């Protein structure tokens, strides 16, 4: 296989481990802290996890390991969307496993959780592992979105593990996958089959974080990649001085990615979905906010700018949220009747007859292509696929209408020429930054330490991440500690709480203090490309979000 110069060079990069994991395995001791409680609904969650609730926090330190050195077989699964650093979780896990005992074996279940159910796997070798060190992507074994959540699936998983004498499974995934990891761990514990389950916190979205997870892996590299591109666009805008660029960034519901990119690039406007919801802003309010920046800048002769839009924005706008919810319900009941209609006029008449008048009004107010996108195929749960709605185009069209009205009233005389972009897939498989390469390798290495010491139902955690890696703290947290009960598909379910942007958190407050200045003036920051080699001041920096949260 032909390799790019960077890929060759990255194979030789030695990821940094926390000081406490650098010792001989026999000198790494697991120290137990306090017993844990779930974040809320303690009684109900305790009842749902009788075997794995209330376990103690674990931290590793130099000492004497009490782990038995028997031969171990471990399976690993990548679950959900790609995130830079996934390969390093696996290489860290593999290295710790082989360092402990060269007869230990690592099984990679292919294409996500379905690989475990289908018994579709490979056994890692040195040569295979070496060809994925410090690279982006999940192609080492592939990923998938099958959910491991039913008793039938757990029974198959148990059989497959027993067939290969697998002692433990490591699930690398987001909040849903780690929730399911906890349920699987409880099932195995209840069945006394001795199979351990350990989770690792993955997602570029950054919404798997709480007082024990400082950041999910992949967020650092993905936001640096988008910020490089946004910075380049800002410089282009400031050079040509003729376009307004509207950039939508991935992140599903939460706006962590948009906020981090705004902190790194200082655009003229960045919308934050959580703020839109909290202030109950309508589409018209949002358009006013952007148009105000356009007008002020045009008064200075600056008919250009950059706007960042989070992927999930539309679902946080109250009137659209109601419309989407009504559409989902309507399609669930009358989908056949609806799909039999041929023309847009027929469809509109159907919607007029079946939606509330407020929702129909919202629907009619939207541009035609957005109207059509709202009626596209549903996801497997029957919901509108919000990520396919071109919110960036919707905002452009709303702002354009506002500006036309202002022009008519003599309140605006500038030029508004807008371009749209969507950055998502561009960042999910980038070569992991040094931070993600080190963090992920440590998470994988540490996951094996948890297995070796007999833990199950734990999440591998590395903390103190805004400090240098020597000072990172490795350990484990019972997954049940992060759980609460939430309504899912009509039922109360134990889940890990998704972290949205906190409006009283330091990153948002910093942004809110500076955005008026950025809105009117050109204060762009150009972060440039991720640096893998060179001074630590550019190679080892974490995100602005983490820096603001921790310092
Ligand atoms: P995970 O939550 O599984 O990490 O995936 C995150 C994400 O990248 C979102 O930002 C985005 O909305 C979604 O995946 C896209 O999913 P898909 O890869 O299925 O198109």
On the 0-100 scale, what is the average pLDDT?
A: 95
Global morphology: globular
The biggest beta sheet is recorded as: 9 strands, mixed
Stretches where pLDDT is under 50 for at least 5 consecutive residues are none
- How much helix is in the residues? 40-55%
- Helical/strand content category: alpha/beta
Notes on the protein architecture:
- The chain has 551 residues and is an alpha/beta fold.
- The chain contains 22 helices and 15 strands.
- It has helices at residues 5-11, 42-48, 86-100, 114-117, 126-130, 151-163, 175-190, 219-240, 256-265, 273-278, 283-299, 313-316, 318-339, 344-354, 357-365, 368-374, 391-408, 425-428, 434-452, 506-520, 536-539, 544-550, and strands spanning 28-35, 56-62, 73-78, 105-109, 121-123, 168-173, 196-201, 244-249, 269-270, 305-310, 418-423, 458-463, 473-478, 483-488, 491-496.
- The protein has a nine-stranded mixed β-sheet, sandwiched between helices. Strands 9-10-8-11 form a four-stranded parallel β-sheet, sandwiched between helices.
- Helix 8 (219-240) crosses helix 9 (256-265).
- It is globular, with a radius of gyration of 25 Å.
- The two termini are 44 Å apart.
- The mean pLDDT is 95.
- Bound molecules: 1,6-di-O-phosphono-beta-D-fructofuranose.
- It catalyses: beta-D-fructose 6-phosphate + diphosphate = beta-D-fructose 1,6-bisphosphate + phosphate + H(+).
């Amino acid at each position: 296989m032909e390799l790019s110069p960077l890929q060759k060079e990255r194979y030789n990069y030695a990821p940094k481990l926390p000081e406490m994991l650098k010792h001989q395995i026999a000198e790494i001791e697991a120290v137990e802290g306090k017993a844990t409680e779930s974040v809320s609904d303690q009684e109900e969650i305790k009842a749902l996890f009788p075997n794995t609730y209330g376990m103690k926090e674990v931290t590793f330190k130099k000492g004497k390991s009490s782990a038995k050195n028997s031969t171990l077989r471990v399976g690993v699964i990548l679950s959900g969307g790609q995130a830079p650093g996934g390969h390093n979780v696996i290489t860290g896990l593999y290295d710790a496993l082989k360092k402990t005992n060269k007869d230990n074996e690592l099984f990679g279940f292919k294409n996500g959780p379905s690989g475990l159910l289908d018994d579709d796997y490979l056994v890692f070798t040195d040569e295979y592992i070496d060809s994925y060190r410090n690279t982006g992507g999940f192609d080492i074994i592939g990923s998938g979105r099958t959910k491991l959540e039913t008793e039938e699936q757990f029974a198959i998983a148990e059989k497959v593990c027993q067939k290969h004498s697998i002692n433990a499974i490591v699930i690398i995934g987001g909040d849903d996958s780690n929730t399911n990891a906890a349920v699987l761990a409880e099932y195995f514990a209840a069945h006394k089959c001795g199979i351990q389950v350990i989770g690792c916190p993955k997602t570029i979205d950054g919404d798997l974080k709480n007082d024990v997870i400082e950041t999910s892996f992949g967020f650092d590299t993905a936001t640096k990649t988008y910020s490089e591109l946004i910075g380049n666009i800002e410089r282009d805008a400031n050079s040509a001085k003729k376009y307004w660029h509207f950039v939508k960034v991935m992140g599903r519901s939460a706006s962590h990615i948009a906020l981090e990119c705004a902190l790194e690039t200082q655009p003229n406007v960045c919308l934050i979905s959580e703020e839109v919801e909290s202030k109950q802003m309508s589409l018209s309010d949002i358009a006013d906010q952007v148009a105000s920046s356009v007008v002020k800048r045009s008064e200075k002769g600056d008919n250009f700018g950059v706007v960042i839009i989070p992927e999930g924005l539309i679902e946080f706008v109250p009137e659209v949220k109601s419309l989407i919810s009504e559409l989902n319900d309507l399609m669930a009941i009358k989908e056949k009747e609806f799909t039999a209609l041929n023309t847009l006029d027929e469809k509109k008449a159907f919607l007029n007859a079946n939606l509330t008048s407020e929702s129909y009004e919202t629907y009619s107010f939207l541009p035609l292509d957005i109207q059509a996108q709202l009626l596209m195929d549903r996801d497997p749960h029957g919901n509108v696929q919000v990520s396919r709605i071109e919110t960036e185009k919707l905002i452009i069209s709303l702002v354009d209408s506002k500006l036309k009205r202002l022009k008519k009233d003599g309140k605006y005389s500038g030029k508004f020429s807008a371009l749209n972009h969507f950055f998502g897939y561009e960042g999910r498989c980038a070569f992991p930054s040094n931070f993600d390469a080190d963090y992920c390798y440590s998470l994988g290495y540490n996951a094996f330490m948890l297995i070796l010491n007999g833990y199950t139902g734990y999440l591998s955690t590395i903390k103190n991440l805004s400090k240098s890696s020597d000072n990172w703290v490795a350990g484990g947290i019972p997954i049940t500690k992060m759980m609460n009960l939430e309504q899912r598909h009509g039922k109360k379910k134990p889940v890990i709480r998704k972290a949205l942007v906190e409006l009283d958190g330091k990153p948002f407050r910093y942004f809110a203090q500076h955005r008026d200045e950025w809105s009117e003036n050109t204060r762009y920051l150009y972060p440039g490309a991720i640096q893998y080699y060179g001074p630590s001041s550019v190679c080892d920096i974490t995100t602005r979000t983490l820096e603001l949260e921790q310092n």
